[in-house]
Amino acid sequence: MRIAVLKERAAGESRVAATPETVKKFIALGAAVAVESKAGQGASIADADYAAAGAEIVHADGAVKGADIVLGVQGPDPALLKGANAGAWIVAGLDPFGQRARIDDYANGGFEALAMEFMPRITRAQSMDILSSQSNLAGYKAVIEAAGQYGRAFPMMMTAAGTISAAKCFVMGVGVAGLQAIATARRLGAQVSATDVRSATKEQIQSLGAKAVFVESVAGIEGEGAGGYATEMSEEYQKAQAELVSSHIAKQDIVITTALIPGRAAPRLITDAQIASMKPGSVIFDLAVAQGGNVEGSVADQVVVKHGVKIIGFSNTATHLAADASALFARNLFNFLSAFWDKDAGRPVLDEEIGNAVRLTQDGKVVNERLLGAQ
Ligand code: NAD
Description:
6-stranded parallel β-sheet, about 20% strand, binds nicotinamide-adenine-dinucleotide
């Protein structure tokens, strides 16, 4: 059983799918691990650290030669997979809806592509969930970045020269990223409020010491929502939400938006008119900018100034914390593969529930129901 770890090639991607810690653990399971030279550079991990953990350092040419499993943060270009064993697994964040043509290439190449973002939201899969581990860091980074762009301080300060009032921070969308954004903004001393469409988040917001701001006139999504996910809301709800946001947002200094709907463009939560109502110098961080954006006019990786308000957002937020993001991502992959490790077979053998959820391609065909259903 040979596992290959490729250097990421997507623009701006600094993470890596294995760390010396996970390399050591894979070797302890009986696998051989090959790591492409400089794969860890963006995450401050040297080739020598991988070699000390027992990995073979290989060069781009033939990096996947003889591999049974190829690990990636993002899906590798199929051209890089020449030489991998027939039926090799590609285990990565494959962006199944966005990279459909590439998924077909994996099928045609005879690979078994496993999309880690399709990990089901069940208790036993929590430690394997790349969306959670990366969103958590992204929520933290959004607040830190917004604080960096804000020309004022977050905490209330009583100084000899007078008092500075605390920043008011509003978090829209309280999933994994939103909860971490609330916690981070609170730690920095801001006065925090938050909203979501799922009623289960109300208690979570309050337990973090923030104020829950919810649409009350129209029913939202009961409890957690299906599989923990939101769906598109009715027009009536959207109208009520827009009114609520309009009255609340004008008083906010920092807004962090994180709202996502799986397989769809991100819902639009903030309009240009609402931005115009905010105080000049306020900052909005749009964590959904790469999925179409929650904020009108947000552009990935640019500071857009509208009505004196700075609107920011990264196309890939977790990559800005590459060392920690890689450490958690790599553990997610190890937790996944080791949970299914079959000692006799000397390789992982997936069960039906998780296997069917994450497997996109098999025996030359696209087999994933969620992906086929989206056609
Ligand atoms: P997400 O990234 O899909 O969406 C972010 C948030 O935006 C969600 O809370 C969603 O309800 C909200 N949202 C969507 N449309 C909105 C709108 N129009 N207005 C306001 N908010 C809107 O969500 P996520 O971070 O992946 O987490 C969602 C839930 O799933 C959480 O409760 C989390 O605890 C749970 N979860 C469970 C597991 C597990 O059990 N293995 C793993 C991950 C997440």
